[in-house]
Amino acid sequence: MNIKLEPLSVECTKKLFIFEKENRTFFETMVPSRGEDYYQYDRFLQSLNELLVEQERGEGNYFLIVNEVGVIVGRINLFNVRKHPSFSADLGYRVGKKYLRRGIASISLELLLGKVIVEHKKAEIRAKTTSHNIGSQKILEKHQFVRRVVKEKGVELNGHLFDFLEYYWKNY
Fold first, then answer.
1. pLDDT of 94 above 90
2. 73 contacts 95 by C-beta, under 8 angstroms
3. Residue 154 domain-assigned (yes or no)
4. CA of 144: how far to CAs of 12, 27, 114, 148, in Å?
5. What is the DSSP letter of 45?
6. Domain CATH for 113
7. What is the pTM of this model?
8. By the 8 A CB rule, do 92 and 77 touch?
């Protein structure tokens, strides 16, 4: 599958809202819920606008993962961006359930890291995942992220406690 990263924009609102609603149940098996309000269109639009303001201020880089026919298959984001003394950010990504196991997350991360390397001489990116999200762990490790911190039973999902794993990547 050919994919590309498209910057988050207001033009994608309806398609992104549908993508998020269609994948809500699946996403909530891997990450904490965004809450009921997030799935109300007006609140979703407000949240999207907040991200766009952050992006405009340089505090976040938010991308849609889009396939060859323009369908949103996932998202990948850098948030909590800091640029001084060197670039640092937190990483988040999600791929829709019906697009799993096609290499989309891995390719997207490779594209994003390529952008970071081109734009910044020094950079550090942090990522978190849960102990039961083996796919995400493998993707991060494939791209030279190193696990440094484990918070035992650090996150509750659907009544189960999982370890919270933290990973770091540096290009210097």
1. yes
2. yes
3. no
4. 32, 24, 13, 12
5. H
6. 3.40.630.30
7. 0.93
8. yes
